[in-house]
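Sample pair:
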Amino acid sequence: MIKYREILRLHSQGISQRGIAASCQCSRNTASAVIQRADECGISWPFEKDLSDSELQDLMFPEKALPTSRKIPDCEYIHREMAKSGVTLSLLWNEYCEQCRLSNEIPLMYSQFCRYYRKYANTTKATMHIDRKPGEQLEVDWAGQTAQIVDRITGETIKAYVFVGVLSCSQYAYVEAFLSQNQECWIAAHVNAYNFFGGATRILVPDNLKTGVEKSSWYTPTINKTYHEMAEYYGTAVIPARVRKPKDKPNAEGVVGNISTWIIASLRNQKFFSLRELNHAIQEKLAEFNIRPFQKKPGSRLSVFLEEEKSALMPLPATPYELAIWKTATVQFNYHISVDKMHYSVPYEYIKHKVDVRITRNVVEVFFNNHRIASHVKLHGRVGQYSTIVDHMPDDHKNYTSWNAERFISWAEGVGPNAATTIRAILSAHKVEQQGYKSCMALLKLADKYSVTRVEAACKKALTYTPQPSYKSVQTILKTGQDKVATEEDPTPPSNESTANFGFTRGSGYYGGEQ
């Protein structure tokens, strides 16, 4: 609004209109018009009663208070359209004029159209200071500017991405460089930040990056599973900032700018040959940054943190969070899942079901509908290894795998000594003991079919033929019933004396021998 009071006061002191215009930041024509209209209305400084600028305007220019006959533009619609790419005020004014022509209304001139919009736009830029409670919130972000390290061998320059975490109350900051912005580095940065602060906050405020938020939504954002698990481990909640709303985490945005100047830019002339060297230099600069005094309030980030916020942080768990990677797998017909070319068993009831797999450095856990159904020690080394738990197998598979050499021999000894000898012979006939398991299992099945007594007799019969009988020889004896013949006949061979009792016994002379 025009400074009517100041114009009339300076005019009463004999100041020129040029000087009045420069002092009141208005044009000379405006100052001249105000002075002329005040003379016409009989108003002069000092006033008989105190009048404000708006009251003076109503007295001297009552026509300004009258509603305009021209159509007032929809400033809210204009503001929404201006957020779209390629839309300008000139384009919107042309569309506004076209609408007025169709509705037989008088449009505003372009300058007045812009004035109405600027007035509305200024009201949308209102900001509010929010007092943060100590220990309540940690704002995290990746700095836009990167640091650099140099490869010792090739001399190649490698980018290092800078993580920034800021406590909202004290603005105490943590900074660390990483070679990537992947999930592993993102989680490690949070764990190191909590260790640096000595406690955890109740709320985490990240951006909508994929390592933190899988699906952005102001009402129901989908948090990355690994990130959510880490937050649960520390007892904190993840509340991501809105998309393209940096004011949702102003401290992190502000500190990122300061970090870019006071840490990253200040190290630009130094060469680092490892990430460890770079982070050591960053920690030195960070310590200086945190103890720098505030410009508009007493103390520093470190002093406010120690006095107000450190005691309000939640205590950390006994051990730091261990990074876990989540994957989805399908249980195959052999009731195993494949993870990093290794195979882990799950209960056979989940064959062809999709399961969630949680992988840490030492453990592989399998979940179905958020219930853990299997846990294995992670396999390392040669690919294609199997980790199988017997309880996960069907009953018939359990019975098969539970047989070994000792158990086969123990079973055979219960049948008889000949069966035990036969089993040992079958097992020793192969270079690898396991090669004889199938033959031993088949011999066990023969006992179910023919009875244990007949198997023992068949083994005895087979041992009279060879000291290394096979499963086939025993099976043939049982099929032909030779084991029964052996038991019915007198096993002792006839002597030479008994042959003389037979009348048809022929001597050697009958067969051409000498008398």
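The mean pLDDT is 83.
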